[in-house]
Specification:
With about 160 residues, this protein is mainly alpha-helical. The chain has 5 helices and no strands. The chain has a domain of about 80 residues.
Length: about 160
């Protein structure tokens, strides 16, 4: 049997274990529960910038699970880069929509922003609960990082200023 070229490989050939798969709705490429678990896992790993977020999505969706082809992923990424707004978030919503329709796009979009939302809510609750800005602002201020100056002792030398 000859291999099918990638441009003709359909997106609906996921690698899913049939024994653990939940029942599929008509139009779902992968079981929705499985997709939710994967999007939740991606969301926990993508707290940061768009380059890292896109790389995590590519590894999880294209390389590991093969739910979408590399060509289709890059085509979607190029399209999202042309649109105004956060490209990584748009890409997550689009791939979620491809895999599970409207509910997949909504789930991927919500789960993609969930870690940042939880972090901001936790910091807000800490601030409101303590009622003092110094407790919350101290770890977040630019001056809180340890600084090194030429006159300060170096941890690798025994005396200040020694080289």
């Amino acid at each position: 049997m000859t291999p099918v070229p990638e441009e003709h490989t359909p997106v609906d050939r996921p690698t899913v274990d049939p024994a653990s798969a939940a029942p599929r709705r008509a139009g779902d490429v992968v079981p929705f529960r499985t997709a939710l678990r994967v999007w939740f896992g991606i969301s926990l790993q993508t707290f940061g910038g768009p380059a890292g977020q896109i790389a995590v999505m590519q590894r999880a969706l294209v390389d590991d699970r093969r739910w979408i082809s590399q060509r289709r992923f890059l085509h979607a990424l190029n399209y999202c880069m042309l649109l105004p707004g956060p490209e990584a978030h748009q890409l997550a919503i689009y791939v979620g929509w491809l895999l599970n329709g409207l509910r997949g796009g909504l789930a991927a979009g919500v789960l993609f922003v969930a870690p940042g939302l939880v972090a901001l809510l936790a910091l807000s609750a800490l601030y409101v609960g303590l009622g003092d800005t110094t407790v919350v602002a101290a770890p977040c201020s630019p001056g809180s990082a340890p600084r090194w100056s030429p006159s300060s002792p170096r941890p690798w030398s025994g005396s200040p200023g020694a080289r």
